[in-house]
């Protein structure tokens, strides 16, 4: 057992968990101004086009600050925690970091990015042996053979990384979703006494709080870019798979039977948006699934008249509500839980559009009524 686990189990070290959070927060806060200055000096900025939701050039290298903060925390804490778990994660992040930086500066082909993601994910899966071993009875499916388990876990990694990348199109959205998801996982890992994974969550939370400060800034704004979306997406995927794996291997765990449902609830928004956007692009528009457009859920919410921060707030509230529905239905059969989570998610993310439609209808009725009054007068 590692030193920090011993201290915390003795009831004396909970305050130590503030160290990785504060270290990531301070490191990122110190790094971002320098990154922004260099990006403007070297013209490493995003130039607005017809798809952009901003009107000024903005640096796209925010992922460097996020990576730097997380890597420092995991490297320092690795000496006191589970180095066999954390060091492969750092190695995978380094691979994704260099791919992301190259893509942000020179543009990288989707095939090369996908290959890098596969190598990074496989490295962590094979070295740590953190993988999805069973479907937990979902749709009647149980244990997975070893190689199928590896393949399916790899698919989950790639899905989550790219799903997260797809929602990075609005000020604060990707950062807020990553922050919220990591806070959920950090709380769950802490309750499970998984301190190494708790530190991963806290490091990401600290770096994303600093990123959001600058992402929302009007003077020193920065985007996370592909570097950030791949680094953060990978860490969200790692936390998701680790949460499922640990619970599935422990018959006494609180989420032994429904860990995949909890993960689905936590990541419902990026997964829903990915499924929806692929359907729209491939089936309806007959386009490449990764071709850029403005058909994302957050784009449609902007069209309702919501501001960037309002869209982010609505999505955060909806995501929290879906997780609550999953937690409240834990005592039900796993397939019924799946139905409840999907239903709750579809309702919560459709609600803004239904409300807007109702308001629109009421305005039409009111206009007709006023016109009648005018005619009578």
TrEMBL record:
<feature type="transmembrane region" description="Helical">
    <location>
        <begin position="87"/>
        <end position="106"/>
    </location>
</feature>
<feature type="transmembrane region" description="Helical">
    <location>
        <begin position="118"/>
        <end position="140"/>
    </location>
</feature>
<feature type="transmembrane region" description="Helical">
    <location>
        <begin position="146"/>
        <end position="166"/>
    </location>
</feature>
<feature type="transmembrane region" description="Helical">
    <location>
        <begin position="338"/>
        <end position="360"/>
    </location>
</feature>
<keyword id="KW-1003">Cell membrane</keyword>
<keyword id="KW-1133">Transmembrane helix</keyword>
<dbReference type="InterPro" id="IPR018480">
    <property type="entry name" value="PNAcMuramoyl-5peptid_Trfase_CS"/>
</dbReference>
<feature type="transmembrane region" description="Helical">
    <location>
        <begin position="258"/>
        <end position="279"/>
    </location>
</feature>
<feature type="transmembrane region" description="Helical">
    <location>
        <begin position="60"/>
        <end position="81"/>
    </location>
</feature>
<dbReference type="Pfam" id="PF00953">
    <property type="entry name" value="Glycos_transf_4"/>
</dbReference>
<feature type="transmembrane region" description="Helical">
    <location>
        <begin position="196"/>
        <end position="216"/>
    </location>
</feature>
<keyword id="KW-0812">Transmembrane</keyword>
<feature type="transmembrane region" description="Helical">
    <location>
        <begin position="311"/>
        <end position="332"/>
    </location>
</feature>
<feature type="transmembrane region" description="Helical">
    <location>
        <begin position="228"/>
        <end position="246"/>
    </location>
</feature>
<protein>
    <submittedName>
        <fullName>Glycosyltransferase family 4 protein</fullName>
    </submittedName>
</protein>
<dbReference type="InterPro" id="IPR000715">
    <property type="entry name" value="Glycosyl_transferase_4"/>
</dbReference>
<keyword id="KW-0808">Transferase</keyword>
<feature type="transmembrane region" description="Helical">
    <location>
        <begin position="15"/>
        <end position="39"/>
    </location>
</feature>
<keyword id="KW-0472">Membrane</keyword>
<feature type="transmembrane region" description="Helical">
    <location>
        <begin position="173"/>
        <end position="190"/>
    </location>
</feature>
């Amino acid at each position: 057992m590692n030193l920090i686990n011993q201290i915390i189990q003795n009831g004396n070290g909970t305050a130590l968990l503030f160290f990785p959070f504060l270290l990531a927060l301070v490191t990122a806060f110190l790094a971002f101004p320098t990154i922004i200055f260099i990006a403007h000096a070297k013209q490493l900025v995003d130039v607005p086009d017809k798809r952009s939701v901003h009107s000024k050039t903005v640096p796209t290298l925010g992922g460097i600050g996020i990576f730097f903060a997380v890597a420092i925390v995991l490297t320092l804490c690795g000496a006191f925690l589970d180095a066999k778990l954390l060091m492969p994660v750092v190695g995978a992040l380094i691979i994704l970091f260099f791919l992301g930086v190259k893509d942000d500066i020179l543009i990288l082909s989707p095939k090369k990015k996908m290959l890098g993601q596969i190598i990074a994910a496989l490295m962590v899966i094979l070295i740590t042996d953190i993988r999805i071993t069973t479907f937990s009875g979902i749709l009647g499916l149980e244990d997975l053979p070893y190689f199928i388990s590896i393949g399916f876990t790899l698919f989950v990694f790639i899905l989550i990384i790219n799903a997260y990348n797809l929602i990075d199109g609005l000020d604060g959205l990707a950062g807020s979703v990553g922050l919220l998801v990591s806070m959920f996982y950090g709380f769950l890992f802490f309750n499970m006494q998984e301190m190494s994974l708790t530190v991963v969550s806290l490091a990401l939370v600290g770096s994303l709080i600093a990123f959001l400060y600058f992402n929302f800034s009007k003077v020193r704004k920065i985007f996370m870019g592909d570097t950030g979306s791949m680094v953060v997406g990978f860490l969200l995927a790692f936390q998701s798979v680790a949460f499922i794996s640990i619970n599935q291997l422990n018959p006494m765990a609180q989420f032994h039977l429904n860990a995949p449902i909890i993960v689905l609830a936590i990541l419902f928004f990026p997964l829903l948006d990915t499924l929806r956007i692929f359907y729209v692009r491939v089936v309806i528009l007959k386009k490449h699934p990764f071709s850029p457009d403005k058909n994302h859920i957050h784009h449609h919410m902007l069209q309702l008249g919501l501001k960037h921060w309002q869209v982010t707030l609505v999505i955060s509230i909806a995501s929290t509500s879906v997780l609550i529905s999953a937690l409240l239905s834990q005592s039900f059969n796993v397939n019924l839980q799946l139905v409840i989570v999907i239903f709750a998610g579809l309702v919560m993310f459709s609600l803004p559009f239904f409300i807007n439609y109702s308001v629109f209808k009421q305005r039409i009725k009111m206009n007709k009524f006023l016109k009648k009054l005018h005619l009578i007068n």
